[in-house]
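Structure tokens please, single chain.
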Amino acid sequence: MQITNNFQLNFKSGKIDRAGQRLLSKRLKAGELDKFIDRFVKTHEGTSYNVVLGAIRRTPSKFDTLDACITYDKTHFRHLEEGIISGVFLHPKSFMVKLNNQIRKDLISIATNGHIYN
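Here you go.
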């Protein structure tokens, strides 16, 4: 008798794309950049959602700002963007705090209501 186990754990993670790394290298010091990337990856490693941190070039203002695409499953996702003023005056850590708070709210909303509130 042969027993096969097709059950696969679906662990997702956090990733930073090339544009996001380029923007973070402009806004953070060299030592801070490595710590920021390590902490971001460790925070979202093995979670039930997938986060991709990137950058948006805002054409009229020529400012790059951070953005994040969060995918919870096939039907639930969210896109967050850092504001222009936040991108100029605030540290990227403030966007990470906003991102983590939104993920927490979304997971609670999906668990209790079955969908994400805007």
